[in-house]
Amino acid sequence: MPLSEKHEETKTYDDILNAGPPLNQLAREFVTPTDLFFVRNHAAIPHLQLDSYRLGVSGMVTRELSLSLEDIKENFEQRRLTATLQCAGNRRKELVSHKPIDDQLAWDIEAIGTAEWTGVRLGEVLAAAGISSADAAHVAFLGLDTLLRDGARDAYGSSIPLEKALGCEVLLAYAMNGEDLPLAHGCPLRVVVPGYIGARSVKWLSDIRVQESPSDNHFQQVGYKLFPPHIDMYNVDYADGMQLTKLPVNSVIVRPQDRSLLPAGKVAVEGYAMSDGEHEITWVSVSPDGGASWQRAEFINAPQLWTWQLWRAEFELPPGRHELVVRAWDSAANSQPETIASVWNFKGYVNNAWHRVGVTVK
Questions:
Q1: CA distances (Å), 90 to each of 84, 242, 280, in order?
Q2: What are phi and psi of 96, to 5 degrees?
Q3: pLDDT tens digits, residue range 125-138?
Q4: Is 0.85 topped by the overall pTM?
């Protein structure tokens, strides 16, 4: 299925499809239209036959399952959840501008989107299989997308803690915004793990395994780990890295865009804020002067768990150059660090420093 022409020019990375919406279309609606929802892939989109598709459930379970898509739809209650997904590399472009980052997609602010997901609760599928051991602590996923590594083909994989997997918010989704899940977003079935980095929401899901330890897949043990700023690709020990799970509190200015030329007078500043989904965004402050003074933004939508918060502020800006800045707090009193340098990491993950946009008023 081709991407909509509404997506910006496709970003290529080893000839793998990755795309996001034009920035002028980002976050204009609370629910992101499917054709504007970002796409992040690590391998080529797999070819599959729906009539032969099966989802396997195995590991520390009392009964292994092999489920067709119809089995899933007929035997488990349909659930709907509006949730935001965000790539761990969202806002990497700012980190790259501070210090080079090799071999990673330089996302701007577009690797995020909110959709209404339809499917079944992962916890209910796990209950049907039965957890067979008190040592079970993680749920691992494998997708049908594969890539060559060290001369062999490996499937994309990841895992989440069992406690999270049993949460009512975690879905096995077969529909997006009221329509069948598009191929680029994981048809026929994907995991949706609200509040966690998007890499844990495995697409083209083929296998679920209950186990004692996190997944040993490359993307769990190497690909998505966080390190402090003094670690780089030359001195890294991946065993010491922090496995990325929850998203940190973050806020972004979407409009006006960086380097905009604006007429003098009243200027509307709009954007989105997001936390780990378990905590609401409670406060967004916007500065028209690089952080010297601040104004509270108004919320465009009512706060809602597992989703972004859209916000708006207005300023009277005189002619000249201005630096707009935003920062947010959530209901657990988490806020954002001030500087890019304090969050820089050689993988370019989870940048949540104050977001800054330079504009010129004529």
A1: 13, 18, 20
A2: -65, -35
A3: 999 999 999 999 99
A4: yes
Q: Which range, of 2-16, 262-276, 283-297, averages the lowest pLDDT?
A: 2-16
